[in-house]
Design goal:
The protein is of the alpha/beta class. It contains 2 helices and 4 strands. A 4-stranded parallel β-sheet has the order 3-2-1-4, with no helix packed on it. It starts with a strand and ends in a 9-residue tail after the last strand.
Length: about 80
């Protein structure tokens, strides 16, 4: 699973919500993915890489440096992160 958080301008809580959403989505699909690749950029609200602090049981979380275009890419922006 590849998650693109480069357009997220908010901080810790919104990024955590997006990653848990993606994990829940993959569990609902029934896939057995054990690796999570996160592409993110440091910003004023979150001056660190979130993937360095994140540990998920039974998953391997890795920060990637290059943006990858893939059919399994889930792109998160502040517009689709708001609760409705």
């Amino acid at each position: 699973m590849i998650i693109d958080l480069s357009k997220m301008r908010s901080g810790f809580c919104d990024r955590l919500r997006q990653i848990t959403f993606c994990i829940a989505l993959e569990k609902l699909k029934g896939t057995k993915i054990k690796k999570i690749f996160i592409y993110e950029i440091k910003n004023k609200e979150c001056p660190y890489y979130f993937s360095e602090l994140l540990k998920v049981k039974n998953y391997n979380v890795t920060n990637i440096k290059k943006k990858i275009s893939n059919k399994n890419l889930i792109r998160m922006t502040p517009f689709n992160s708001k609760l409705s």
